[in-house]
Amino acid sequence: MLHIKKNKVYFIAEVGSNHSGNFQNCLKAIDSAKKSGADCIKFQLYDERTIVHPKLKTLKYIKNNNFTYQRDRFKFLKLNLEKIFKIKEYCKKKKLDLCVTPFDHRLVKKLSKYIDFFKVT
Q1: Which residue of 14, 20, 22, 119 sits 20 to 30 Å from the alpha carbon of 31, by its own alpha carbon?
Q2: Could you tell me which residues come within 8 angstroms of residue 43 by beta carbon, excluding any fewer than 6 positions away?
Q3: What's the domain range around 84?
Q4: In 10 A of CB 72, how many CB atoms?
Q5: Does pTM surpass 0.90?
Q6: Domain-embedded: residue 35
């Protein structure tokens, strides 16, 4: 259930994939978002097999890059559905809404019961 109040700014803390694939970083981001006054936190969810071509080289500007191919990097950074469900429970305890940007229409169907809303770009 969204926690939107009339005549109040709805503050969304954008995490995206800045958790570096680490679940504990996700929880820390949620704690920080709550502490900063956010109403919602947003993560990205994708399937590395559908987001990029398998032979796409990792971009040169990415720092601390140990991956030859972008797909391998995305696989390392991604959250799986099980982690998203745990994140939702943690957000519920913290009274934060959860938003996800899904990069695949199949993820929308799987997530729709658990996510407060989706950001579509």
Answers
A1: 119
A2: 15, 16, 17, 19, 26, 79, 84, 87, 98, 99, 100, 101
A3: 12-118
A4: 15
A5: no
A6: yes
Domain presence at residue 7? no
Q: Give the Å distances, CA to CA, from 66 to 59, 77, 109.
A: 11, 12, 33
According to the model, what pLDDT value does residue 3 have? 67
Supply the pLDDT for residue 31: 97
CATH number, domain with residue 88: 3.20.20.70
Q: Give the residue among 120, 96, 106, 82 at the shortest CA–CA distance from 35.
A: 96
Is residue 2 one of the residues assigned to a domain?
no
> 35: which 2 tokens?
């502490």
Candidates 44, 33, 31; CA nearest to 10 is 33
Averaged pLDDT, groups of 10, the chain, 121 residues long: 75 87 93 96 88 85 78 85 92 94 84 82 68
Indicate the number of domains in the chain.
1
Q: Where are the beta strands (DSSP E) in 1-121?
A: 12-16, 40-45, 97-102, 117-118
pLDDT of residue 79: 86
